[in-house]
Amino acid sequence: MLKRLSRLGRLHGEIEARGAEALEQLNKPGGLSDQAEAMVGLARALADGVAEELIRRLPFRMLYTPRPTPAPAWTPPEEVLIDPLAAMTVVALKDEARRLGLAVPRRIKKRDLIELIRAA
Q1: Same domain, yes or no, for 98 and 49?
Q2: Cα-flanking dihedrals φ and ψ of residue 105, to 5°?
Q3: Is 81 exposed, middle or buried (CB count within 10 Å of its CB: 0-12, 13-18, 19+)?
Q4: Alpha-carbon span 35 to 26, nearest angstrom
Q5: DSSP 1
Q6: In terms of domains, do 58 and 88 share one?
Q7: Number of domains in the chain
């Protein structure tokens, strides 16, 4: 049991050492991280240069020129006569029909209920 624990401890130490060595290689000057940063910087510089050259050479102004569109003047909305019965809920319409003394079925469409009240 102790041998197994000591082997595991040694193995853990070796793994730690290899990981630290790999990180050191990655982060040292001129290592992989520096190379990756240099490549990203080069790609950005190239993209900026290409974009600048395209803007300088191509007639982008001829491709699209926004034209202002005049907005219409605001006018107040016209007064719309709202049917008071159409604005009521079905429950309120049923109450109104019962108040008028009409027999109202349990299930009825709002349109039919309005017609029933108007006919009374």
Answers
A1: no
A2: -65, 160
A3: exposed
A4: 10
A5: -
A6: no
A7: 2
**Does the residue 77 lie in any domain?**
no
DSSP state string for 10-67? HHHHHHHHHHHHHHHHHHSTTSHHHHHHHHHHHHHHHHHHHHHHHHHHS-HHHH----
Instruction: Give the length of the chain.
Output: 120
Clarify whether residues 54 and 92 are in a common domain. no
Residue 50 lies in a domain: yes
CA distance 3 to 5: 5
Residue numbers of the domain that contains 18:
2-63
Rounded distance, CA 16 to CA 22, Å?
10
What is the percent of the chain with per-residue pLDDT over 70, rounded to a whole number? Answer: 84
Q: What burial class does residue 93 get, using C-beta atoms within 10 Å of its C-beta: 0-12 exposed, 13-18 middle, 19+ buried?
A: buried
Convert the pLDDT of each residue in 26-42 to its tens digit.
777 777 777 888 888 88
Mean pLDDT (whole number) for 83-92:
91
Tokens of 103: 């027999």
Contact between residue 101 and residue 119 where contact means Cβ atoms under 8 Å apart: no
Residue 33: how many other CB atoms lie within 10 Å: 14
Are 6 and 59 part of one and the same domain? yes
